[in-house]
C-alpha cells in the first residue's frame, strides 16, 4: 500500500506478526461462564468426601463398640462373677478339705481317707491316693498315729471363675505310741482349687 506521497506503507513481517514474547505476554482470554461454573464443579466432590468421612467414622464407631462388647464378655464379666459369695465358697472348700486331709485315726483310717478324697481332683487326687496307701497307712497301723487339724484363719488370695488359691493357717495335733502326749504344730498351706461342676475341689496343697 502507498500513501498520498507514494510511500510504501505495507507493514513489514516484523510489524505484521507479533513476536513469540509478545504472544506469550498477552493474557489468555477466559470465558466468564467457565469461571463462574468452576466452584459448582468442586461442590459435588466436597460432598463425596463428606460422605466418605462419615462412612469411615461410622465403621470406626462400630468397631469400637464391638471391642467394648468383647472386653465386657471375655474380660470384665468374668471378674464380676468372682464376687464375695464365690470367694467365701472357695475358702470353705479349702478349710473343709484341709481338715479332712490332715485328720485321721487308726480305727477310722479307711473312712477318713475316703472322706479326704471327696475333696480332691486331678493329679493331686492321684498323688494323695498313692501317698496314703504307701506311706500313711503303714505308719498309722504300726505306730497308731492319730492326727487332727483345726483352722485358725484363711483367706482367698486369687479367685477366678474356675480356679482359686486360698491361704490357710491351721493347727495340727498328732499322737502316737511313741508320743502319747501328742505334739502340736502350727502351719500354713497354700491350697489350689479347681471348680468341677458346682463344687470347688483341691487340686494343689503346698506348705508355705
Automatic annotation (TrEMBL):
Q: Which organism is it from?
A: Mycolicibacterium madagascariense
Q: Does the keyword Transmembrane helix apply?
A: yes
Residue ranges crossing the lipid bilayer per the database entry: 51-73
Q: Where is the composition biased (Low complexity)?
A: 35-46
Protein name as catalogued: Twin-arginine translocation pathway signal
Keyword Protein biosynthesis (UniProt): no
Q: Where in the cell is it found?
A: Membrane
**Main localization, broad class:** membrane
Per the record, GO CC terms?
Answer: membrane
Query: Where is the segment annotated Disordered?
Result: 1-46
Domain of life from the UniProt record: Bacteria
Q: Where is the composition biased (Acidic residues)?
A: 10-34
* Keywords assigned by UniProt, alphabetized: Membrane, Transmembrane, Transmembrane helix
Amino acid at each position: 500500500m502507498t500513501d498520498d506521497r507514494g510511500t510504501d506503507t505495507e507493514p513489514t513481517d516484523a510489524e505484521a506478526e507479533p513476536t513469540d514474547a509478545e504472544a506469550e505476554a498477552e493474557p489468555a482470554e477466559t470465558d466468564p461462564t467457565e469461571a463462574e461454573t468452576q466452584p459448582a464443579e468442586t461442590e459435588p466432590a466436597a460432598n463425596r468426601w463428606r460422605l466418605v468421612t462419615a462412612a469411615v467414622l461410622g465403621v470406626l464407631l462400630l468397631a469400637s463398640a464391638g471391642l467394648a462388647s468383647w472386653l465386657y464378655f471375655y474380660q470384665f464379666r468374668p471378674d464380676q462373677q468372682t464376687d464375695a459369695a464365690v470367694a467365701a465358697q472357695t475358702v470353705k472348700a479349702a478349710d473343709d478339705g484341709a481338715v479332712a486331709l490332715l485328720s485321721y485315726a487308726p480305727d477310722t483310717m479307711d473312712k477318713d481317707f475316703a472322706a479326704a478324697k471327696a475333696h480332691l481332683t486331678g493329679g493331686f487326687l492321684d498323688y494323695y491316693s498313692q501317698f496314703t496307701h504307701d506311706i500313711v497307712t503303714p505308719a498309722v497301723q504300726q505306730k497308731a498315729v492319730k492326727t487332727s487339724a483345726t483352722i485358725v484363719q484363711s483367706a482367698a488370695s486369687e479367685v477366678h471363675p474356675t480356679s482359686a488359691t486360698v491361704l490357710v493357717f491351721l493347727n495340727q495335733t498328732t499322737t502316737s505310741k511313741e508320743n502319747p502326749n501328742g505334739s502340736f504344730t502350727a502351719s500354713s498351706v497354700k491350697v489350689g482349687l479347681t471348680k468341677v461342676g458346682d463344687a470347688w475341689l483341691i487340686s494343689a496343697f503346698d506348705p508355705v
